[in-house]
Rhamnulokinase
Amino acid sequence: ARAGTVAAVDLGATSGRVIAARVSSNELSMRQLARFPNDPVRLADGLHWDLPGLYRGVLGGLRAAFAAGPVASIGIDSWAVDYALMRGERMLGLPFHYRDERTQAGVDAVHARVPFAELYRRNGLQFLPFNTLYQLAAEPTALLEAADTALLIPDLIAFQLTGARVAERTNASTTGLLGVRTGAWDEELIARLGIHRGLMPELVDPGAEIGPLRAGLAAELGATASTRVVAVGSHDTASAVVGVPMSPGAAYISCGTWGLVGVELDAPVTSDAAREANFTNEGGVDGRIRFLRNVMGLWILSETVRQWEREDGSPVDLPALLAAAEAVTTSPAVFDVDDARFMPPGDMPARIAEWYREHGVPVPASRAELARSIVESLAEAFAGTVRAAAELSGTEVRTVHLVGGGSQNALLCRAVADRLGMPVLAGPVEATAIGNVLVQARAAGFLAGDLETLRALVARIMPPVRYEPGGRAGALCDTGPR
Ligand code: ADP
Ligand code: LRH
């Protein structure tokens, strides 16, 4: 089989990484060349991504990839919805972080023009206060008028690398401005929201070539002239779902900063019930639909740990904390992880304690107990969302795949298996980078086939770890109200 090397840039909300992979129809070997923290920064006007810092990390990883040998292509994915406004080559300010709290005015302005029920029929998206259309509506008019293009984060990195301005379709589906059935910009909606049509660039599909590296940059990075930047499922969740080694009858949980919980469908479900359950229909690779709901995810745990680290002035050992949490023998009460108070950065233990007090539930006494409650509460939300995804889409679900950083959390995997009464198949950890790699490798001709063929390769080379339900001694049940 023809083999070759591609480089995946995967920017998560917790960390960014650059991975080089050698791929053929029976090979998938991944090497991490760079990993850098993604630390947002609060400026006078709000919370922003440190884009220059991330870009520096990307360039360092790419330089290492080129130093190791020829690279056919580069693919970029990141978290969704956030963007930079551009005027020519210039970025009009650092992109805002979706956890910045400025968007409420945008939500009200959009819903005054287009009620949510109509939006849902048009774009199929769950309500998240930071969806791009609400963020755009919160921008000062003068800035929107000055901008000639809005570029989503992966498209922005691709622009820096190549000079080409495109909107990759899976990520464009998270803006709220793409028709859920057409996969094209919803011109009428864009006009009704008063956005100038030129702001949204030409759409491209995963697998399409974006362009060669800028000449000066290629030389500086030591790249060969033939290296191309190629579109992948640039929404990280789109790439993650490509990398899930699943077969029919499986649901997935892409579990990192967020828990993205759902099923893959051939067509969207925009019923009243789906809208009321706040399920989304995001555009996937090869025209598939990701029918899922955002569950708060490991953000709650990592933000809790960050608070303790601020208090202690020293790092907290996560595996040790999880081991202590697993050893807790008192019944942990679950809380509603999706309560909006947990969205912004801040003192998470205090907010969780506040939730418990409001609901008349004793507050976990120790760090281990609180960590246990967080994991059990996440598992409870994941399990409920898997059930809802199956019911709303009419899918029979028999197993659940859990991928991403959270797949290393055995306590979480066991808790999900117990609550669902189904096996949880954990891993790969880097499903997102794998999905990114697979789409590039197929575009380069190192692989062929549909998503099922690509997933079969992942299942063969990186078999998941299986957690059976009922595997925990004296498995604990949920005791608290939700
Ligand atoms: P993102 O892609 O959103 O940046 P990741 O998929 O990298 O996030 O997942 C990050 C999360 O993975 C961390 O918040 C942490 O909870 C979890 N994690 C990382 N390493 C471990 C580990 N060794 N054991 C358990 N959980 C881990
Ligand atoms: C996960 C993710 C998710 C979006 C959120 C903003 O990283 O892309 O799919 O909803 O970030």
User: Anything to note?
Assistant: The first strand starts at residue 4 and ends at 11. Residues 179 and 452 are 26 Å apart (CA to CA).
